Amino acid sequence: GMAGGVLFPSLADPLAPAPKWGMYLFLFMCFIAVDLKETWRGIRAAPGIIFYLTAVKLLLLPVLLWGFFRLVFPEYALAGLLLGAAPIGVVVPVFAIILGVDFTLVLIGIAVTTLLLPITLPPLTHAAASFGGTAVLDLPLGDMTLSLAVTIFVPLLCAQLSRWKAPTVTAWFSRRRSSISTVLVFLTGLAIFSRYSGILRQDVSILVESLVMALSIAALSFIVTALLTRGFATPRRVAFVMSCTGLNNVLCLILSSEFFTVREALVSAFYQIPFFGFVIVYKLFLQYLNKKDAAASGRAGTSAE
After folding, report:
1. Which residue, 25, 66, 112, 174, is most buried by CB atoms nearer than 10 A?
2. pLDDT digits (tens, 9 = 90+) for 65-110
3. Can you tell me the distance from the alpha carbon of 96 to that of 85, in angstroms, rounded to the nearest whole number?
């Protein structure tokens, strides 16, 4: 989609509304899997870990990434903040099931981080832009908050009504979620990057920079959250790291096209590469922790004898 938008921008003219409406549908398919009553029960059953995950994902991580990139690569500081503050991606529970880690933490985390985004992201970006003296961005706090609230709560309401009143519709979308999501990502990339075709053709280096930044954000997020979860049980630790690195970059891409610049949009798009590459990293991390646990158990057994 990104390549098509850059090379054939005229093809994307009829797709101007695609990003916004695509995001509505994307989130609708995310929320049809969410039972709000079960989510609330899960929060009440383990409030501490949910609060910790939410604080790290929506507040600590974006501030750390913004600060780091402001020092070493200030042009991409807002990209670090945006991706750091992004909610958990809708595919991450599938990764959790495949690896057999804490699926419940990931699923509840998706609902909580997505629903709180209109409250956390606008003040963070507004403060960062003001603190950094960013005059080129138009970041009206009220407009961003309203846009995010509508983007998230309208699909949530529709999804819950569908679960309640139209289970057949819910089942139809659930069965086709993967294929529909793939089409939406393609059309979104085609529509958004057609706007930046002229810039990207003139300055190819920005593509390389954005790819490096996306990989750097992924690596730093993994390292930080792996350190912050030392002492956690292995299934919960992997699920926590998974939740903080497997983010909803499609939402970031659409927000970038609405409020930010081509840099934030490119980094969001390129994050798709580490997002799926993390499947291998998660597996290796889980294997490493399991071996470490087994070695510790062996030493404990030897000491007991």
Report:
1. 66
2. 999 999 998 888 989 999 999 998 888 888 888 898 888 898 888 8
3. 21
**What is d(CA 22, CA 33) in angstroms, rounded to the nearest whole number?**
18
Q: What are phi and psi of 247, to 5 degrees?
A: -105, 165
3-state secondary structure 112-147: HHHHHHHHHHHHHHHHHHHHCCCCCCCCCHHHHHHH
301 Cβ neighbours under 8 A, 6+ residues apart: none
Structure tokens at 296: 């510790």
How many CB atoms within 10 Å of residue 146? 13
How do residues 47-61 score in pLDDT, each as one tens digit?
899 999 999 999 999
Percent of the chain that is helix, strand, coil (3-state, to 5)? 85, 0, 15
3-state SS track over 200-263: HHHCCHHHHHHHHHHHHHHHHHHHHHHHHCCCCCHHHHHHHHHHHHCECHHHHHHHHHHHCCHH
CB 206 within 8 A of CB 55: no
CA distance 43 to 290: 27
Cβ(181)–Cβ(248) under 8 Å?
no
Report for 25-34, 51-60, 86-95, 184-193: range of highest mean pLDDT: 51-60
Residues 6+ apart with CB under 8 A from 119: 145
Among candidate residues 211, 6, 220, 248, the one with its CA nearest the CA of residue 121: 248
Per-position b or e across 93-125, b if 16+ CB within 10 A of its CB:
bebbeebebbbbbbbbbbbbbbbbbbebbbebb
Query: What is the spatial distance between Cα 156 and Cα 123, in angstroms, rounded to a whole number?
Result: 22
